[in-house]
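Course assignment 3, question 2. Fill in each field.
Student: A.L.
Task: Predict the tertiary structure for the chain below.
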Amino acid sequence: MMKKTKQVEIQIESLKKACKEFELDNTQESYYISYPDFLEHFKNISEFKKHDVVVGIHLIYGWMPTICHLKSKEFDESARILNKVKKNNQLLKEGDLDTLKDLFNKSIVGTSKLLHFISPETYPIWDSKVCNYLGLPANAVNNSSVYLGYIEACRHIIGECQDEINHVKKVMKEFDPYINYEISDMRAIELVMFTSEKKGASLKIN
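Answer field:
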């Protein structure tokens, strides 16, 4: 039986307002500066193998306050899944996400960050601050189905809020000479949610 996806509905007007009020956090400058270098690292991987999987997820955990523990031995399968994303910007199904999560510290947060750096136009970063902005329960942060719903909601927002997203991208680009790069629409949306304390979403089952 096919699992029902948890659908996240982002309140458009709330997000538009947050985009207009968006300011970068000076305390997060290290993340902003390192971001393009992470992108470049994963761009230079032509095909994922076990080495790239292990090194890649540990690199990602440099952005996180926890240590990465490899929780399974599914290195070859995880490399195969990541290559689907690398080569085709493919949106993974819940089963593939769970395979990655089970290897990567049982964490959909770490998984989302890795997927984002491989395909920044397809996968937004997901973490507890974004989950809190969306008004979702704390246990939703590690749920693959919720993450897929979040991706779909972000895709919808991109079509509705392009002017506001462009404003966020402009603020990001002008922040510092070291951060003079163009971010994806997905990254722009996630940054707004990450830096905003206002809640603007709902969750339901299709």
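Instructor remarks: The two ends are 15 Å apart (CA to CA). The longest helix spans residues 144-160.
Grade: pending
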